[in-house]
Amino acid sequence: MKRTLTRLLAVLAFTAAALPASAEEVVVYSARNEQLIKPLFDAYTRDTGVRIKFITDKEGPLMARLKAEGRNTLGDMLLTVDAGNLWEASEEGLLRPITSKVLEANVPAHLRDPDHEWFGLSVRARTIVYNTGRVKPAELSTYEDLASPKWKGRLCLRTSKKVYNQSLVAMMITEYGEGKTEDMVRGWVGNLATSPFPDDTSAMEAVAAGQCDVTLVNTYYFGRLMRKKPGLRLAIFWPNQNLNNKASGVHVNVSGAGVTRHARNPAGAQKLIEWLSSGKAQNLFADVNLEYPVNPKVAPDKTVAAWGSYRQNLINVKEAGRLQAKAVKLMDRAGYK
Amino acid sequence: MPSAGVLPEARPRYSGWMLFALAVAALVLVPVVVTVSSFADVEGDILAHLTEFVLPELVGNTLWLVIGVAIGVSVLGVSLAWLAAMCDFPGRRVFEWALLLPMALPAYVTAFVAIGLLDFTGPLQTWLREDWGLTSLPEIRSRGGVILVMSLALYPYVYLIAKNAFSTQGAIALEAAQSLGLSRTQGFFRVALPMARPWIAAGLMLALMETLGDFGTMAIFNYDTFTTAIYKAWYSLFSLAAAAQLASILILFVLVAVVFEQRSRTRMRYGAVGRSAASRRIRLSRALAGLALLYAGMVLGAAFIIPVIQLALWTRDVVANDLDARYWAFARHSVLLAGIGALMVVTVALLLVYAGRQRPGSAMVWTQRLATLGYAFPGTVLAVGLFIPVAWLDNWLIDIGHTGFGFEGSELLKGTLLVMLLAYLVRFLAVGFGPIDSGLHRITRNIDEAARSLGSGTPGLLTRVHLPLLRTSLLTGATLAFVDILKEMPITLMTRPFGWDTLAVRVFEMTSEGEWERAALPSLAIVMAGIIPVILLTWRGDHSHG
Asked: HSE of B329 in the Cβ direction (CA atoms, 13 Å)?
């Protein structure tokens, strides 16, 4: 038995060793869809000659995979779509800190890990979308205001199971504390016109059809829907902008990346992340999904720019991860499904 | 079955069968053990929170769902199987196989289409509201809606297996009943239906296990079940341990259900019956035949035709952009994996069923039942439960390789198709086991004894007597496994080697950011690939009934 095993191993080892030594390669584990990342990776390979292999999956399984593979992982870089997930990856010890002047210059401080383990690469703003026939912009002001009785039966929301809403509530906890945030979420739930939707798009369609008047969505879903159905009576409103009220700004999140702890090619992964944070790549990364470039020196896509500029909430997005579990429990208590 | 009087004498020379069954069960138990071992790491506050705010509602939800779907798939599946197998009505020949087609359509697709058409913003409600002033219509995103969609998506499991039963024994059962003076209706309820019970139960178990483990459809309906809570604990509360603990409880529930089903089944005995009597079909009156046509047509329309038309319309919008040469590779990978996987599932299932025939007894029954639990696991939890030990084994082997052989790679087992196929086997063994097990039930031991008395050994008995009689059951199991593997996402995502993207992976890429219209193209491709074995099955089935 032992001899058979030894022989089998020898054969396998030989086959592996006999493979030709290839050009430099970076392996990416990505929770961002293939259609959003492949054009970028192809461009990188054209520019640098470095090959990129990638595998896509949800964040949970990708992190479980990195953890189980341990020091023998193939993944050099983890790419995910929410700061909460990046925070969790760092918490689990799956990432390594990197020092990079380029990244520090390109990525604003509140959109990267203070411990340098991950960096935002595109910005996603979660904002208010309203029915232009039924709501005057003057009626709108803040996220908190959507809990007030004047919105009774006029609010639609996506499910609390989506991480975007969890991050939003987590950030509110940092600002207002748990008690006030919970009251606000209860207010939202009381104002709902119908049970929560599985995605942002259906919530916006309900607003357009008049089932309700306002909802909260990530702007790129708005962009995508309006591209398909330009006639819908929907518009974006940027909440929490009034500086007199010490308003906090629009809730933003990132999709971003970090180098894995046991990367075999950490230098290659770092170079790739640096490239993704600069110039042309920033536009490729963000524009393909109508997101905002993380790099303030890069202008967003024309469609996106037309929505107007807004003040971001400057609390570090890592708070979204740190307080995510708290936010989820709070939403459960408040009856937000 | 361990009923008194039929227990054959112990034949120690076949104890290899028991070992085989144990080995299969052990393989399936690996992820279960990994999952249960999570109890070493209890996160009290998370569990306390879930128990207080989440569990009470979802236990009720899950219970209602299971009861509703059980009734739904039984009524649809049994009635359609009876019509297709025993009666004659216009279009019966087409319906007989067409009624299987919804199997090729993932439930979450049916769900998405149903909500798209029937919700407030959908065309039906918009029309009723704007042209007729009708408001306050029943809400599709509700408990009733989930049950309806799941029943439409899963009835083929019951239909397919029950049809086998009716077409081989229905006519004789009915004749026997009528000779005893029972009416046709009485004959159906008092003889034919009870006789078909193990088949119906086998199909029902598959449908219910799939319902319990379903995530996609529940997410679209935002309907909280055990499985959605498992993902919540994992993805939202960042506690894989709490997720695994909930999954263990789910598995326990399934096990209890399996035991009840098994118990009630062992009290019954099923005799053999001859070949089908298609010529003795029930002639329905014109009115009844019309009703049958209407009924079958409505079910098929709601469960398959309308969703597929919707998919086709969406596909038309995206096909120019999205369809490229890579689709051939996706389709090839899908069909190849599903084909090899289905073959493995059926082979192992057949041997497992056969082990039960050779070494009956409660130990064997338990072993068999444990070996088929993988189907009720929420897919992603199972994928992780399998991946962790494989990675662990890989790390261990690589260490040996490093020190002893100068091996420099980072993976041996991971990233091979072997792991992927084994994972499919663990997940879908139940799908092969169900039909084959109930198929072997109807071959009496008298046949075995007769064959043995004619000098046939076990291999001869298997190849010359049982296999020909089991052909339809084997094809049924293979078809179910093939189609299920085509649709499978979590295991495929987690264990596929680089570059082995399949059609289901494409569906994942599109749906994960809500691009449902673009997901129509790969979904439609899955449907088309899934139709192939369904048609093959019917064609072979027709053949074997002469």
From this structure: 8
